[in-house]
Amino acid sequence: MLSSPARYSRSIDWITVLIYISLVGLGWMCIYAASYSADAPANPLNNLRFDQLMAFNWFKQLLWIGTAAVLIIVLLVVDYKAFDTLAYGLYGGMILLLIFTMLVARPIAGSRSWLELGPVRLQPAEFAKFTTALAASRFMAGINLRYQNWRDQLVLAGITLLPPLLIVASNESGQALVFAALLLAYFREGMSPLILLLLAAAGIILLLALLVPKLWLVGVFTLLLAAVLLLNRRVLRHHLVIAISVWALVIGMVVGVDFFYNKVLQPHQRQRIEVLLNPSADPLGKGWNVTQSKIALGSGGLLGKGFLQGTQTKFDFVPEQSTDFIFCTVGEEFGWAGSLTVIGLYLALLWRILYVAERQKSVFGRTYGYCVASILFFHIAINMGMTMGLAPVVGIPLPFFSYGGSSLWSFTILLFSLLAIDAYRKQDLVR
């Protein structure tokens, strides 16, 4: 199932490729800066052995970038029909791999989500986003799919929810949240906006239940029910059972939030919510990461302190600065201008992916394109929100920027699978 590389070179979307190269290159520079030490040799490549170089994140990231380039070549020579044909098989294989990881992986920071292959560690949850996007796109491209059909909706929900449930069972909640982004792609393909509104309403209710006394909320929602029944006689006559059921569900969420918060969430997950709701409560303890992150971002000013000149970066004030908080390095060393440039590159990438998705002739290609855009958007928004204190610290990487082979490989596969499909957009897929 191979295709001609020459034909790809003529039809591949090179604008997207250039944006990808720019982001990966800037990301490597920031990883180098985050792990830079003033005492290090001026040119470590001439002074250190390979095993010594492997102690540096920037060097290991170079190796990951090199292997990602090999992955790109492989994706471009595989026949574009393979992505549609193998979608369910890849999804099933990933489900088995997630179960295997959950059962045999060694706990790392309380999570059983990493497979160790000698010196290499891989996180299957990263790649599960790719296989789920493929499987969901394949299903939605089915000729008989109807969003008004509850059976179809349940099957699609099962495809989407099974991987994150297994990931949560491995105690890795951050990666599981990303799958919610697929709802944006489903909405584009005809899913009722009512589902998005209901999920958003549920989120707001749960947030209010954490911030407002429960008795007040129960009283407010009871008054709302009474007002609806008094002002709309049609609801009173024909939809009384539905109205009361919705009220009971809402009250159950309000009352049950304490049980979920105290009995279901892990201590570190509760800490993340507490820091988000009140970041100044414990700035030297639970709020240390976010506090130092905001200091690093703000200290860069308009143009930044200069490459390798960031004090917050150099002296390791921000934990996990090569991974979760890599955007701090951009703000501190390149300032507002550098941060705006990186955000601009991400916006250009998302716009280009949507453009590529819309020009597909197949439902499969278009849906998969929107899945890619949705996953990347969620990662970008949440990761940058974490560094600014606008989102909980859930431990998801910044695409193409954060250190890590699993994240770089998974995002590269996501993006270049779409470009491989797009390169043959003039040849319709079966679906």
UniProtKB/TrEMBL annotation:
Keywords: Cell shape, Membrane, Transmembrane, Transmembrane helix
Membrane topology summary: Multi-pass membrane protein
InterPro entries cross-referenced by the UniProt entry: Cell_cycle_FtsW-rel_CS, FtsW/RodA
Classification lineage: Bacteria, Pseudomonadati, Bacteroidota, Cytophagia, Cytophagales
Name of the molecule in the record: Cell wall polymerase
GO MF assignments: lipid-linked peptidoglycan transporter activity
Pfam families, sorted: FTSW_RODA_SPOVE (PF01098)
Membrane-crossing residue ranges in chain numbering: 12-38, 58-78, 90-109, 154-187, 194-210, 216-233, 240-261, 334-355, 367-394, 400-421
Chief location: membrane
Biological source species: Hymenobacter nivis
Subcellular location(s) of the protein: Membrane
Entry's Gene Ontology cellular component terms: cell division site; plasma membrane
GO biological process: cell division; regulation of cell shape
